[in-house]
Predict the 3D structure of the following.
Amino acid sequence: MPPVTPREFLGKELCRARLAAGFSSQQALADHLGFERTAVAKAESGDRVPSDPVLTAWAKACDLDIEHYQRLADLARASDGPVPAWFEYWLERERTAHMLRCWSPIIVPALFEIPQYRRAVVMAGGNDPDRADQLVAATVERQSVLLRPDPPEVVAVLHELVLRRLIGSAQIMYDQLAYLADLSARPNISVHVVPSSAGEHAGLSGDISPASGDGGLDVLHTDAVPEGHTTESRSLVRRAAVTFERVRRDALPRAQSRDLIAEVADEQWKQ
């Protein structure tokens, strides 16, 4: 048998604890915790390290030593490759989606980032150069979804501040915005910019990324620190879709957005 990974070991221990506490099925524990069954299933299989809220609730329900299990979870996360386990489920759905939408008020969405921009972002997060190289390579691989024979329809909404926030250097920003403008001309990609003059709007609470695929539930991903969250909860996906549409209403049309991107590139970042 292959050696048990830290994630798999944690999953086996959590499964043993669930059964010992009298929860005979994953669904029973999920209902008790108020989370989706997939959160329990993925944790027990070792596919995903449970988030801190899930782990804390699990420990309380099963009368576990939370500090011990938190150490196991930290070890499991540290053993991840360039793509952390908690993110793998989203990537699976992103690769097979026929419609991707994202609202990004802080930085350029990862699917649209040039390598130099991505590297500056991950270095700012405290990663060493070797780890940064791995993360950049993982992002480039992720972007291959745009090169599929049947690429997804992508609708991205960015705040104007994303175009004006210095990431890396002026040259990196110019190259990034030029690339973004080129992408927005593709027939399957629409990029819209919410101008700073819009003031308050529905997307002030943060980024959202809904994805739709054939034959499956729609899924929602949101980024956060230290880890993001992916859910198939119909109520959350529906609310996110409504929020996305409300934000898009405040954004400029596609052609005007592309003009603004090019304008900011030339006027603010061109050397």
User: Anything to note?
Assistant: The first strand starts at residue 99 and ends at 104. Residues 11 and 44 are 4 Å apart (CA to CA). The chain has a mean pLDDT of 88.
